[in-house]
Amino acid sequence: MLAGQLDTLAREAARLQPLHLRELLFAPQRFEQFSRRAGPLLLDFSRQKLDETALQVLGAIAEDCGWQQRRDAMFRGDVLNRSEQRPVLHTALRAGESQLPSLAPASVTGEINETLLRMGRLVDALERNDVSAYGIPAGITDIVNLGIGGSDLGPRLAVEALRSYHSGRFACHFLPNVDGHQTAALMRRLDPRRTLVLLVSKSFTTQETLLNGAVLRQWIAQAYGGDATRAAAHFIAVSANIEAAGALGIPAQRVLPMWDFVGGRYSVWSAVGLVLALAVGMPNFRAFLRGAALMDDHFRSAGWRDNLPVLLALIGVWNRNGLGHTTHGVIPYLDGLAELPAFLQQLEMESLGKRVGANGESLRQATVPVVWGSVGTNAQHAFFQALHQGSDAVPLDLIGAVRPAHGLKDNHRALLANLLAQGAAFALGKTTQDALAEAVSGDAVERQALAAQRTFPGDRPSSTLLLDAVTPESLGALLALYEHKVLIQALLWDINAFDQWGVELGKVLAKSILPALSDAPVPESFDASTRGLIATIRALS
Ligand code: F6P
Prior knowledge:
- This protein has helices at 3-16, 21-25, 30-33, 52-65, 67-76, 106-128, 153-161, 180-189, 207-223, 228-232, 242-247, 274-280, 282-301, 308-322, 340-352, 384-389, 409-428, 432-438, 444-453, 472-493, 504-513, 528-540; strands at 35-38, 41-44, 142-146, 171-174, 195-200, 235-239, 255-257, 327-332, 370-373, 396-403, 462-469.
- It is of the alpha/beta class.
- The chain has 3 domains: 3-65 and 302-428 and 460-501, Glucose-6-phosphate isomerase like protein, domain 1 (Rossmann fold, 3-Layer(aba) Sandwich), CATH 3.40.50.10490; 90-286, Glucose-6-phosphate isomerase like protein, domain 1 (Rossmann fold, 3-Layer(aba) Sandwich); 513-540, no CATH class.
- The strands form 2 sheets. Strands 1-2-11-10-8-9 form a 6-stranded mixed sheet, with helices on both faces. A 5-stranded parallel sheet has the order 4-3-5-6-7, with helices on both faces.
- Helix 15 packs parallel to helix 20 (472-493).
- Bound molecules: 6-O-phosphono-beta-D-fructofuranose.
- Residues 147-151, 201-203, 206, 209, 264-265, 350, 500, 503 line the site of 6-O-phosphono-beta-D-fructofuranose.
């Protein structure tokens, strides 16, 4: 951002500082002015500490930065990921469901359509238990999705969120971590002869995934008296590294492609979503793509004032760079969306967790806040105390659905009542005067002390996102909304949102430490803490 833009934000923040959200929220037409709809999603940002002037300032910044040009450049397949010289075309993965003409190169959409057809045929064959043409043994009941980061979070979130759409044909399991406890537990639970492993890794070099892959292969081989070829028949790979998958004995027919133009955290729409397609069926997977395409079309056609992704991005920039909030909470009031905070942690923090710009120079402004969260109402009984009365305000996204996928009306009303109540409580708070009126016992000093503790400062911002219902379409739209929020914030912050060099160093160090955890000599070059901890582990293991 330009120094002038940051100054303007600071000025606007100072202007609004003395105004309490309580005052803003009772202004006439507040909800109508500060809420927008796109398809099955309603964004209410009337509880953000913003007024029309501040919103106008933010919109002008987006316009000055040329947000439409950046948006169109992405859809067109320009090289936005300059550090890796790659286009960014996750939107092409759902372009077939879009109402607008695709801007993506025809070669790309051709490969994508072909892969979707292959996925459809594979899902169909597995559903019908007619898989001999694929070399997969009949009788598969359990699917294990082996992948981490983007090869896990999106599919896991969607499989959980769309539980009411599950066909019930397969039980789907996820094994992201290299923690052997999970791997061992899964192997205890499942029948190796009835298990199909989806080895999902864009790079096919990820330690966790490859190690678990080798363990599961051995486990399946044991069930066939050590026959490695029969074990390999239980594997499907999804990867951009087709040769490496082949080298593991998985024939090309069972390798579905990924592409360099799709980042891992943006890949649930590709064959990375195979586990979702197996859980909910291909028509529902297509509906999920359709929901994302609906959000793409909205993003491509609405002006900034009505554009949900742009508004979400601007609200984030306002809270971070205007009001100086360092963290951002995501609270879905839906157990099915329990994985949404983790998904958004990767999407937002891996994309925007940078402190230098594309030209290598230090950025002027703070960038991504720490994203965190958990489901409501559980979170109310855990960390909400600090959100209400702690020293730091945390802007929140509160997310709910109007219509549940069950008939327990009282439960759902209670859930929604809590969602609405918390947003109001954060914004309005409770004055010391009101708290004093409640304090009936004790002398004046004691009553004053108690009232101070029972005061809620309020003035704590939140947005509410209401889905009409959790459906494949609305979930697709929700995830695409956040993807596009990231694109706009990356533009405003001058960040390449599509590389992730920051995760490399730890991976390299883990490789060098691994031998020292068995009996290799511990290099002198290791720091004191690493050496001390290795010695402790070696002594006790
Ligand atoms: O650790 C970072 C990361 O590279 C993510 O960006 C990615 O989603 C994840 O690891 C898994 O990578 P892969 O799909 O290549 O195994």
